[in-house]
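My hope is that you will study the record closing this message with an eye to the fold:
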Amino acid sequence: MACYNVMSVLTNKRVENVNEMQRVLTESGCIIKTRLGIHDAGEDFCSNEGLIILHLVGSEKEIESLEQKLNEIPGIKAQNSRLCSD
């Protein structure tokens, strides 16, 4: 049975929180297998809202710690989902 940890990270203060959020993600870099960032951007515009999808490979304790640290940053909501095949 294969299991996958996929964390969604939503921010509504992307520009203000980028340094703190990046620091936390860098600290957990060894458990982040894939990272996908989505936000509206254009020639004259860069959205302050964004969504990051993380595929995580660490222990349950490491993943819970990352989720907690991200949720402590104002304007950020993180939620991990564990999906397993039958």
Helices lie at 14-27, 60-71.
